[in-house]
Every structure is written in C-alpha cells, then in structure tokens.
Amino acid sequence: MAWTRKDLVSMQDIEATEIGEVLDTAESMKEIATREIKKVPTLRGKTVVNLFYEASTRTRTSFEIAGKWLSADVINFSASGSSAEKGESFLDTARNIEAMSPDVVVVRHKAAGGPALLARHLRCSVINAGDGAHEHPTQALLDLLTIREKKGHLEGLNVTIVGDITHSRVARSNIYAMRRMGMTVTVAGPPTLIPPACQELGVKVSHRLQHERMTGGFIPSLREYSRVWGLGLDRLQHCRPDVLIMHPGPVNRGIEISPEVADSQYSVILDQVTNGVAVRMAVLYLLAGGKAA
Amino acid sequence: MAWTRKDLVSMQDIEATEIGEVLDTAESMKEIATREIKKVPTLRGKTVVNLFYEASTRTRTSFEIAGKWLSADVINFSASGSSAEKGESFLDTARNIEAMSPDVVVVRHKAAGGPALLARHLRCSVINAGDGAHEHPTQALLDLLTIREKKGHLEGLNVTIVGDITHSRVARSNIYAMRRMGMTVTVAGPPTLIPPACQELGVKVSHRLQHERMTGGFIPSLREYSRVWGLGLDRLQHCRPDVLIMHPGPVNRGIEISPEVADSQYSVILDQVTNGVAVRMAVLYLLAGGKAA
Amino acid sequence: MAWTRKDLVSMQDIEATEIGEVLDTAESMKEIATREIKKVPTLRGKTVVNLFYEASTRTRTSFEIAGKWLSADVINFSASGSSAEKGESFLDTARNIEAMSPDVVVVRHKAAGGPALLARHLRCSVINAGDGAHEHPTQALLDLLTIREKKGHLEGLNVTIVGDITHSRVARSNIYAMRRMGMTVTVAGPPTLIPPACQELGVKVSHRLQHERMTGGFIPSLREYSRVWGLGLDRLQHCRPDVLIMHPGPVNRGIEISPEVADSQYSVILDQVTNGVAVRMAVLYLLAGGKAA
C-alpha cells in the first residue's frame, strides 16, 4: 500500500502512486453505490467530524454520505453558533474536538493553511475540504477519477482550466495533481485572474481570447465575462469530439457555461458528483481504516 | 400490493386503495415505537435526503426519526448556506443530490410544484413534505390514520376544516384525501380565505359565523380572527360528544384554538404527531423498500 | 444500583452515591473511546433528541458522540427555524417531540427552570444541558470525574472557582456537587459577580484581590478584569505544585486565563472535554439503558 500519510491537506507534494491508490480504492468503493444495500462495515466504530467554517452543504453532504456508507459515525460541527463565535481560537476549537476522540476531522476554512495547521497539531487525521483560495484536494481527486474512468488513462491528456484561476482552490489542487499524473494543463481566463506564478507550475497560459475585448485586463461585468469566457455551444465546436466538460459546481448557468453545454453529451458534471462520494469514501478508508487492513 | 408509485407528491390523484395501503402499513409501523428496541433493519443501506428549502424542524425531525428507526442513512440538506444560495438552480441542486445516489429525497419548498418538478426529473423517489400553499400529503395521511384509529373507519364521517383554507397545503391535501375516502368535508373561515374553487372539489362551504361580524370580508386583527373563528370551549359544546379536535401544529394557543380545547379529552393533536412518524415510516418503506418485498 | 431517577436536571438534591455511580459508569465508558472500534450496542433502538434553544455546538457534539457510540439514534432539534419561532410554546414543542417517542430529551434553554419544567411534564427522560444561569449538571459531573481521575479521590480537596459566579451555571452545579462530595469550595471574583447567598451553600468567599483595585465594585473593562482576576503564571506560583487548572470552555485566552497557564502541565482542560463524552455516555446509559440492565 502506497498510502502512509496521516492527513490529506494538499496535492502539492503528493506522489503519483498515492493518487493511483486513492483512485483504485475509489473505483472499488463506487461499486457500493450500485448495490441494493449501500453499506459496508469498514469504518464501523470510527468517528468522522465535519468541521465546516464555511457553509458548503454539498461537500459536507458528500463526506457525510461517504462516512455513513462506510458505517462511520458522522458528526456535523458547523462553526456558526459554536464556541468559535464566543472568542475561542480555531486551534482551541479543533483541540476540543480532538479531545472527543474522532478518527478523522474534515475541515473547511476560509483561511488558506487552516487544515495544514490542524494536521500539524492534531493526532487524528485531517482532510482539507477546501481552505480559502488555497486547495481542495478531494475535488482534484474526483476530477481525476472522472477523467480516468472516461478516458481509461491520465498520462498525456490535455486539460484546459477556464476562468478565475487566482482565486480557485479547485484549479490549484488540480494543477498539482494533473501535472503529477503527466497531464498537460493550460489555464485560460482574464489576465487579472491568472496568477503570475502559473508557469512555474508547468502550466501553459492561454490569453487567446484576450484580444477580442479584454484590453483593459479586467472584467466590467458578469455579462462581459460570460460573453468572452463563457463556454457555449459555439466554442464547443472547436473542441475534440471526445472532449469532456467538467465543472466543480455549483453551476451558474449562463455565466461560466451555457445550459446547452452543461446538459450536453460531453458534460460529465454529474459523474463528478457521483465520483465525489467514492473518492471521499476512499480517502476516509485510507486514513481511518487502512491501519486495520 | 396497491402501491406502485415512484413518488408521493400529491393526494389529488391518489386512489383509495393506495391510501388504505399506507394506513395499514403505518399501523404495523406504529407498533415499532412501542418496543424496547425501536429499530428494524428494513431500510438498512438505503439513503434518505431531507432537502428542506423552508425551515421546519418538526417535519424534518419526524422524517429523520422515521428513517432512522428503519435503519436508513438520513442526511439533512438545508438550503440555507448551500449551493442554492450561490446561484445554483433548484433542479441542478436536486440533480446533484441525485448523483450521490439517494433512494428517497424528501423535499419541502416554498414554491408550489417544486416536488412535482423533482419527481419528473429524478430517478429516485420524491416525497413532498410541503410545497407552498399547494399540498402536504403525509400530513393528510397522518390525519386519516388518526381518524381511522379513533373512529374505526373513514367513510361517511363529517369533517369541518376551520381557518385559512386558501393558503393551507394541509387543507388542500386533506380535502383530496378525505373526499377520496368517502368523507364529507366542510370548510369554514373568513370568506377572503376560502378559495372560490372549493365547491368543485365536492366541499361544502360554511359562512355561518360570517354574519356576526365579518361584513367587510377581511380580518382586521388576530384578536378579531380569534373572536370569530377561534375554537373555544363554548363552540365545542355545539359539537358531537365524540368529536375529534385536530391541528397540524404548531398551535398558536389562544388564536385558532383555546388552551382548554387543545388540552381537552377531544384533542388528538399529539396522536397526530405520533402517527406522523408511523405514516412517514410507511411511505419511506413503500417507496424505498417495497421493491425488495 | 443507586440510580433510580427519570431525569438529570439539577445537582442540588443529588446524593453522593448517585454521583459515585455516574462517575464509576463514566470510567468504564471512557475505555470505549480507546478501542479500535468505538461502539457498543448498549442503546441500540433508543432515541435521543438534542433540543437546543441556545447555540452550543460543543456540548451538543459531546452528547451526539456519546449517544452514537452507544448506538442510539441521535436527532438534533435546534430551536432556530423551528415551530418555536412560529409562536408555539416551549412546552408544546417539547410535548410534540415527546409524541415522537424519544427515550431521552437533552435540553439547553436560556431560561432557568426550562429542563425542570419538561422533566415534570414529559414521560421520557430529560437531561439539563444548561439552563440560563441556573445549572449545568453534566459539566459538574465531568469536572468531578476529571478531579477524581487525577487525585484518586474527592473528599477533603480544596477547590477555588474564580470569575463571574452569579451568572455561571457551571459554578452553581459544581458548588452543589462538590459540597456533596465533601470538598471545600471557595469562590473568588468581583464582588458584584458573587451571589450573596453563596455562604448559605457552605462556600467560602474570597475577596482577597478586591482591595487592589476593585473599590468601585464593578469591572470597567475586560482588560481590567483580566488584570485583576485573570490567571497567569505569576498567580500560578502561589498554588500548590499539584494544582489542577480547569476551565469549562470556551477559553478566552488572555482574559480569564493566560495562554501559558491554559497550556501548562497543570491544565486538565482537554481532559475535561474527553471526560465530557464519557460522563454523557454514563448519564444516557443510566437514564435510558438502566432499565434493561
């Protein structure tokens, strides 16, 4: 088994063999969702705490379902209305939760580095479920699972990530993971929203569409953004016939992507959601159940 | 088995045999609540998502308890703080949830027709837990269960529904269901709050109390409403000695109903709550577990 | 078995043998948290409802974990967004919950006496999880468990409770419980925040620090409070070398207690949190599972 980490907080230093193990595990987890009885006793007697400082019903639900299908006890601890509001520090709240003996803490925080801080200080496993504009590792893993499932492999594939790259933790985690798996990554978007350091990560930058209109280098309005960067059927025609259209959700139809594209045969957006549960089952298993295996 | 529907969204087109099957099933479910161990493995490995766009802790709790006693995994997905607030459409949110492979989605929405929309588009079962001023089918079913339990039968019984009928999803579902079971339904309330189409549904309209005071056809205040339409001990004296007093809750004591009536021997308000869990167990079972039976 | 109560609402009239039984039971429960599989079937088929009228994610989580490790079904019923907001009375809400057949209702309420009211009116067991400035019995029990664990006994020990005693439900429950166990209790704090009736409870009052600055008998600011009553390393030097520093959380570092003291070798703050789960398991077991034993 390649997986020996206590935590999953970043894709930056993760090995290709580790990613491979998560994806292989997720594939076998995925089969559980197709059963009449979607439940295995793998994590029975393990406790997973969802510690969410940012509202995210979707991601929290995905982790909650993943935990429950593995028979873990899942506790939702939202920061609103909690001791965090009474002046307690983030680390003190986390240490309090740790004192209740969870096996895994899944943490979403608006501050980049929050999950890494917990991972250093807590003995239990920590999963980063999104920290500010930093990383969102399980989203990258579910994206890779979806691509591998549809294409049969990852190495050598070309991926273009379109939009606000600077503020996207999804983009950042995907860039690390996809580069590690030997994929070619291009980012495209308004120049103001492409981080200067992109090329250091081995990523190509495309400003192809820039000259049409974006001379000022900023986005005057959502309508403007949509006209220049939105993905509609017209732009889809320039893609390969076997292109995959992905989106981490929630989809703002008509802004980043047109309804016709979101619902097209190329769209794998809902496959991503399905694979999200499988990937989170895999990660929970590798972190909390692996020792027993 | 009469039940072959994928969903329960309305009482409008439901058959008497279907209602009968829910009530019979609920009766046997009700026995579980009296056991030392309130738990059966019937829906083990099934996933129920409570998708609530309107706050309703009581109804959500009733469904949650019903699901858990049947050993289902129950996930609460409240719309506040969710992707719904980030611009995602109702149907996209629901499709995302569906992609996580639930067996049943229980939906409450402020818009009439929301649950019907989901029922058409989702492969999983959909239960309407209240949609705007439209319907609230499980409330009607638990009302029928309560009446049948107390009276031994339904056919031929006289029911008077008092209050704001126009905006009441409980009244609407009950009118459909009670008419289907051969009951005589009379509605009574301020004329402004009785829908004109009532008589087309085979419902009698009583404005008996109207002439006392309601000449303007509107309610100047809650105190005024209470004086004219509130159910106190004085009015209870005109009822049959075996009358049942029902209320879907929450009870505003002193407005619609006096404390003396709410706590009287005629009141079956808490029986309704108890039967709510049983009816929801029955519906969950018929939708999610019936295939295996 | 000493425990025959239906409810746990106050430490005022509880017997030393009852406290002893909770602590002994908690000690054996605590061992479960150290297992590979943290789960026993003791309360399988029992239903615990957390009825919280005040936000308290930490205490609610502690009860939720306690219930789940015992295999109970745990339902979180928060008052916000519930029927309580629609004009329903506290007792009606509670009776509604009771009608859903829970075995235990854990209630937190801002009004002193709320849990006692429910205990009188509900057939199911009621646990006070904090009511206004009145009591917080499980906090006192977990404090006693922590002290007994560290000291080997309770009788004859000296405890000083520092701070706002008047508004502290934790202080009040602890004073009752500690006096019952033969401990000597001293309270210290700004005179305005020490209840006059303290001495009737057999508690010593220390105003030692008062004369330094508190001539006005009030606290001009948090900074002022911290300077006079905050526990820093300097004051710790006057304590015995085997002193235990305790805090019910959440800790406002730098106000009541300095970071150096909170993290010192004398601090058992996180032990308290760990013992909180064990004590709540014990109480849930004694109330809901004891009959079967």
What does this 3D model show about the protein?
The structure is a homotrimer of 293-residue chains. By secondary structure, chain A is of the alpha/beta class. In chain A, 39% of the residues lie in helices and 13% in strands. The first copy, chain A, contains eleven helices and seven strands. In chain A, the strands form two sheets. Chain A has a four-stranded parallel sheet with strand order 2-1-3-4, with helices on both faces. In chain A, strands 5-6-7 form a three-stranded parallel sheet, covered by helices on one side. In chain A, helix 1 (16-30) crosses helix 5, helix 3 (90-99) packs across helix 4 and helix 5 (137-151) crosses helix 6 (169-180). Chain A is globular. The interface between A and B is medium-sized, with 29 and 30 residues.
